[in-house]
Amino acid sequence: MLTEGWLSDIIDLFSKENGTLTLFLVANKPPLGGEIVVFRGDFHSSWYEEDLDRRQIKWKIGVHLRPHLDDLVAARLLMIEGEEKFPGVSSATIFYVEDRQVYHIRQEKLLLEQGIILVGVGGGRFDEHPLKGKREPGICAATLVANYLGVRSDPRWEKLLNYVAKEDEEGSNDRYDLAAIVKRQGERYKENPSKLVEWVFDLIDGELAHQMGFQTEAREEFHQKAVIQEVTLGSRILKVVSIESDGESVSAFARSRLGCQAAVVIQRRSSGNIQISLNPYYQLDPREIRRIIRLEEMRAESSLASVLETIPLKLLWRKLEEEGGVGTKKWHCMPNFILNGSRTAKVEPTSLSLQKVTELVVLALSSGSYEPLRAPRCRERHCQSNRRNQCPWYDYGLWRCRGVRAEQYK
Fold first, then answer.
1. Which DSSP category does 380 fall into?
2. Is pLDDT larger for residue 34 or for residue 75?
3. In the prediction, which pLDDT does 408 show?
4. Model confidence at 404: pLDDT above 80
5. Which end of the chain is more exposed for a tag (fewer CB within 10 A), N or C?
6. Mean pLDDT throughout 367-386?
7. Per DSSP, what are the bridge partners of residue 21?
8. Would you call 118 helix, strand, or coil by DSSP?
């Protein structure tokens, strides 16, 4: 059996005739330096795969010197998902190919027999650079590995693979793009590339762990606990999800296509804090939600009446629509988030229940709804609210209600 020490420097070659495999190897290292070594044996197309199943191989994955993100994702993918095809590959070591001409596509089966897998070099199954013709669109070393292992559409890997394929083919003008950073770090660690590999593998493992949590724990919790309501906003029917959970990914899962593509997710944690997340896809205007949530919180804190002694209600409406912490310290508003505390900001829990917050969000989004007892006249564009008989919804300053009054008194 050939030794690993000089196999990686062989120059060529094998031929196959009449079912017999003949290997012609020119060895560059002792003990066979300069000699032509010939091996012959029976050949059939799956000989090397069957043999891999029987043997305990110490795998080595070869990438080019100063590897790019694509090559390292391909290597890590092999190590994590490749056990069925390459038993023992999870503990593979990485080596670096300085001279790409050393390897040739016709050596691939021989290299596999010796426990060597090449990605991004060598012209084999995991090299996106074809020896002839043009490179296929959307193909990179990582996607070639993923296709071979049957995980190209696996939700845990899909987004990362899509990103890597696009970046590897088109490049990026953003110097802070992950692939660009990896490339620069390759220059930094060119004398010790193992540091680069360790760092990138750690990033990949972290993202995979996040995706596994997203695909398993978040999915299970969503299906067990989420309460989904539909609301009509103009001509659109939107989904609002409310859920009690301490999960870090359940809100994102609910907003994703794997969940229910919720427009709004209201998550109450065991601490009593509530976070409201708006799905950017729907481009919702958050101001109505901000205003009525803050008004109800102020009412629950018994601070609304005293505030109205110093500022007119209509001016307060505008103030409570703003970003930041306005009106009450318990709620902080950002473009797509209305937060009663967060992982990094400890805030006293809201006085409002999850049910109450959900009702207020649904109220804000339901553009065709009015206070039930007054709704028929409201739809006739006639507001019955006055100082003696004020509508319970008047203080919210809903845009649809203001529109009715504007038409009534114009």
1. T
2. 75
3. 86
4. yes
5. C
6. 92
7. 16, 41
8. strand
332 beta partners? 339
CA dihedral defined by 64, 68, 69, 72, rounded to 10 degrees? Answer: 10
> Could you report the per-residue pLDDT of 265-279, keeping only the tens digit for each?
999 999 999 999 999
Please, which pLDDT band fits residue 330 given cuts at 50, 70 and 90? very high
**Which positions ≥6 away from 309 have C-beta within 8 Å?**
none
Decide if 254 contacts 262 (C-beta within 8 A): yes
Asked whether 107 and 122 are in contact (CB, 8 A), the reply is yes
Strand order in the sheet with 20-26: 14-17, 20-26, 36-42
| Closest of 377, 231, 397 to residue 314, by C-alpha | 397
Domains defined for the chain, CATH in brackets: 1-43 (no CATH), 60-215 (no CATH), 220-369 (3.10.310), 372-410 (no CATH)
pLDDT of residue 343: 85
The percent of residues above 90 in pLDDT, for the chain, comes to: 58
Q: How far is Cα 120 from Cα 219, in angstroms, rounded to an integer?
A: 35
Amino acid found at 394: Y
